[in-house]
Amino acid sequence: MKKRLIQVMGFLISTLGWVFILCTIAMDYWRITQLGGQGGSFIIRVAWYWSNLWKDCFTDSTAVTNCRDFPVLWTVTPYIQGVRGLLLCGLSCGLFAAVFCFLGMECTYIGGADKTKDKLLLVGAAFHFVGSVSDVSAYCLYINRIARTTFAESIGPGVLRYDLGPPIFQGLVGCFFILLGAVLYAVTVCRLICPESTLVYTYGTQTYMDPRSRGRSLYTGYYRPPKQYGSYLGSGQSSSSKISKLSQTTPEKMWPQFGFRSLCLCLVCVSGWILVCSTMPTEIWTWSEVDSIVLTTSNYFSNLWKDCVSDSTGVSDCKGITSMFALNWDIHMCRALIIISIILAFFGSILVLVGMKCTKIGGTEIINAKVTFAGGMNYLIAGLCSMTAFSYYGNKIRAEFQDPNYRAQKFEIGVGVFIGWGGSTLLVAGGLIYSIFAGKEGFESSSETKRLPLYRFPDPYLALPAKKTLLSSARTESSESRKSRSSGRSRVSSVSEMSRSTKTSTTNAYV
């Protein structure tokens, strides 16, 4: 039980670390500096310069942001390319590590015997370690570049001294979580890393091995009798491996039928959840362009958080939505529905992972089916919420575009809405199938157990007295035997008294 708990904790901690690192790739403010504060004014700031792995930006005091994307790949600064490559290599290793660790965890039925699962878990821990080292190297390379410029005694004209931004610290925390998860995985498979040593003693034709591990008895494979009694291999496999093989072959025969289908549906729903999450930072929800006959002069695009315009030189100016209460109610509704969808899909993923047939966490098959049904309902509701938000937003753009009386600038549906529709469709389809199959298996089987008919005795046995237990019948028999013995003794005593009285009467008559 401790091994299973440690592995689950390692899986959750390492997954959280990879989520942190994945978020840093899309985050802004990797490095930031500000202009202002000269002349005794330490409150008013004129402008902020910041950048990430993909663009350099400038924000003025009016909250208008001017950004310029990095040019083609071959003209990007070499250290930026190195940071990108190391981060992507680390994420690739993390993907393989998550797959190997999921197959090798003790709480899953897939992966093979216990020894094979331990090897898979050890390989996954190694991938976690390599991926975290790669990501730490990327962040350290970026930090070293900023520190060299910041602490240099003299810099060239126009060169700014930057500070470290929040994504750097978040990425380092994520790397620490990944290393901690890898250590927890390695602790549970320490037998493969440090095998147990045994001492062999030979007494004649018998062999005895002294166990060095705590809790090993003397009769678990260390004693081998001579060959004249036949070959005895001992307990070559642990009881847990036998139990796991038995569980793979006996009640889990239903796993190839619904378990593989459940795993595929889980991947579909998680993919839909990721697509819905990716629409939140996507900038192009609405899109429009102002062009001449040949050249496009500017592009207008917006999402739920800001409005932007980009010119033909690749420079984009964005202004965030400053006042929350000045927004239209439809933007508030779309924000709320999408956030609710993301939260519900997150809990749905946890419930489905616990209730799948390839795991041993949920309990009995009926409980697993009910937990899976709850996860499927979460997926279904999340898909409906996000589908409502994206459909309403898209319908609003369509209505404004086709309205001849609408005099403001008309937009078209952007790529973010299409991605949201795709993710919502996956969530609705996966949640619906989960709810149908898991609900049918869980609730019908439980109702059948409750509706079992009572056993009716045949008619000849209805007139019999109440059924007695074995103990009560034995007590009645013993009491009856005692009564018979006492009655027999009383009869003998009465007969003897009668004989005595007759004797005395005869003697008296004789006298």
Number of DSSP helices?
11
Overall pLDDT level = 76
Q: Give the strand order of the largest sheet, numbering strands 1, 2, ... along the chain.
A: 5-1-2-3-4-12-11-10-9-13
In the predicted model, the low-confidence regions spanning at least 5 consecutive residues are 212-256, 460-464, 466-471, 501-511
Q: Roughly how much helix do the residues carry, as a percent range?
A: 55-70%
Distance between the termini: 99 Å
How many beta-strand segments?
13
- Sheet-strand content, in percent, reads 5-15%
Major beta-sheet overview: 10 strands, antiparallel
**Globular, elongated, flat, extended or rod-shaped: what is the shape?**
flat
Instruction: Report the structural category.
Output: alpha+beta
Over the alpha carbons, how many angstroms does the gyration radius reach?
39 Å
Order of secondary-structure elements:
HEEEEHHEHHEEEHHEEEEHHEHH
Q: How would you describe this structure to a colleague?
A:
- The chain is α+β, with helices and mostly antiparallel strands.
- Helix 7 packs antiparallel against helix 8, helix 8 packs antiparallel against helix 9 (about 365-400) and helix 9 runs antiparallel to helix 10.
- It has helices at about 1-25, 80-105, 115-150, 165-190, 190-195, 240-250, 255-280, 330-355, 365-400, 415-450, 470-510, and strands at about 30-35, 45-50, 55-60, 65-70, 165, 200-205, 205-210, 225, 285-290, 295-300, 305-310, 315-320, 410-415.
- Helices cover about 55% and strands about 15% of the residues.
- Mean pLDDT is about 75; it is low at about 210-255, about 460-465, about 465-470 and about 500-510.
- The strands form 2 sheets. It has a 10-stranded antiparallel β-sheet with strand order 5-1-2-3-4-12-11-10-9-13. The chain has a 3-stranded antiparallel β-sheet with strand order 6-7-8, with no helix packed on it.
